[in-house]
């Protein structure tokens, strides 16, 4: 959100969270991977 604000961008929709690696693949929470997309203009 700091990047968006610092570059004078505008959020134009809802963020999307996609889990790539979670407790179904590893028991080590330090290895979890989540992709977050925020639509901007």
Automatic annotation (TrEMBL):
It comes from the Bacteria. SUPFAM superfamilies: Probable bacterial effector-binding domain (SSF55136). This is Uncharacterized protein. It comes from Bifidobacterium hominis.
